[in-house]
Amino acid sequence: MKKHDLLKDGNNIIRVLEVKPDKILIIDCIKRTMPVWVESSALDSFSGWTDEVLNEVTNFTAADIDALDAEQKRTMYDRYTLIVPILPFVADERMRSKVIGSTAIEHNISKQTIRSYLCLYLAYMNITALAPRKRLDDDLELTQDEKNIRWALNKFFYTTKKQSLMTAYTMMLKEKYCDSMDVLSNAYPTFYQFRYFYRKTKKMQNFYISRDGLKSYQRNNRPLIGDGIQSFAPAIGVGMLDSTVCDIYLINDAGNLVGRPILAACIDAYSSLCCGYVLSWAGGVYSLRGLMLNIIADKAAWCKQFGISMNVEDWSCDKLPATLVTDMGSEYKSENFEQIAEVGVKVINLPSYRPELKGMVEKFFDVIQATYKKHLKGKGVIEPDYQERGVHDYRKDACMTMTDFEKIILHCIIYYNSHRIVENFPYTEAMIAENVKPYASCIWNWGRSQMGANLIEVGTKELILTLLPRTTGKFSRFGLKVNKMRYHCDGYTEQYLKGGEATVAYNPEDVTSVWLLENGIYAKFTIIESRFEGKDLTAVQSLQIAQRDIAKGANQDNLQAQINLARHIEAIAGSARSSADVSVKNIQDNRKREQRKHHKNYMKGAES
Question: What is the 3-state secondary structure (H, E, C) of 449-477?
Answer without folding.
Answer: CCCCCCEECCCHHHHHHHHCCEEEEEEEC
